[in-house]
Amino acid sequence: MPDTPLSEPQLQQLASDIKRWGHELGFQKVGIADLDLSRHEASLQEWLDKGYHGEMGFMERHGMLRARPAELHPGSVRAISVRMNYLPVEAGFAKTLNDSNKAFISRYALGRDYHKLLRKRLKQLGDKIKAQFDDTDFRPFVDSAPIMERPLAEKAGLGWTGKHTLILDRDSGSWFFLGELLINLPLPVDQPVEEGCGSCTACMTICPTQAIVGPYELDARRCISYLTIELRGSIPEELRPLMGNRIYGCDDCQLICPWNRYAQLTDEADFNPRQYLHSPQLLALWQWDEETFKTRLEGSPIRRIGFECWLRNLAVALGNADADADIIAALEWRSGEVSDMVQEHIDWALERHRSGAAKVTQQLKRLVRVVEKGLPRDA
């Protein structure tokens, strides 16, 4: 707490200024919450006990610290929660998902890595506050520490937690990033918004791998985002055919969500698709060597999965593509020159093509039909 406490009118004015400064810095919404997340501790422990975190050891390692943000930055009493839209113009969902020879990449990863951009803006927001009150102490977070950002965003009035476990807003859907600024000022808090999912279970139904095992409950071990990004070993064979052409992340639960009809497109140039990632051909990406991977994906969130997992993911997608002699030749070209883990996935893909099993799944085609009806204009 500051050495000289601020008066209630000062805190009210500061909260209003913070929201205005946040908008000026490019955040579409700013809210303020207290740090009491104790009601989430039991559900977090239950989720861990079920093993739904898979190989994400950091989830278990930090345990209940996630639900106790005040321990991350002692002295903090509030979280300033922010969100920033990332859906790019001409995102190309339908044309990419409808073509098994193209690579589908989650829309959040098409441009520059959001972590640094949001963190820089949050620090600028903290500096503005400190310029007004020198006793201000703050720390920005953007997926950079064990903190439950969605419950904080929910408390701050940025939206409600949907059945797919993402934050939803009635006016903006869910295509946005979240960030937090822990601060030592007892600012007035905002109120949560009313939940709006009702009886809808579209996200649960459409999930290709049925990873949403119940309302608000995700088994990460089955989630395509986990399989293509967090998992470092072999992808379970029974899940590979269900992944289609998704090589990095999966947006299906967002694409199907009725609230995303109101999604707002981003005006951040850094989130626009890179040339190499905008609806790319699988075979073109398969030709990359490790140096090309590192160079072309510099500053991209994709780079952190490493070249080995990149090849693994592409091999699965190629195995799910329509049967093609060029794909078989490309898979054979890399065969024997990769790690045992990648080779396993190449062998699987080759067997699919040689046996005639490779094809676009009916579920993927069904998703495309749904997506074409509900996308924002130009998306």
TrEMBL record:
InterPro entries (UniProt xref): 4Fe4S_Fe-S-bd (IPR017896), 4Fe4S_Fe_S_CS (IPR017900), QueG (IPR004453), QueG_DUF1730 (IPR013542)
Family: Belongs to the QueG family.
Coiled coil start-end: none
Keywords, comma-separated and alphabetical: 4Fe-4S, Cobalamin, Cobalt, Cytoplasm, Iron, Iron-sulfur, Metal-binding, Oxidoreductase, Queuosine biosynthesis, tRNA processing
Lineage: Bacteria, Pseudomonadati, Pseudomonadota, Gammaproteobacteria, Alteromonadales
Gene that this polypeptide is encoded by: queG
Name of the protein this chain belongs to: Epoxyqueuosine reductase
Binding-site list for [4Fe-4S] cluster 1: C197, C200, C203, C257
Residues that bind [4Fe-4S] cluster 2: C207, C223, C250, C253
Quaternary structure and interacting proteins, as annotated: Monomer.
Pfam families, alphabetized: Fer4_16, QueG_DUF1730
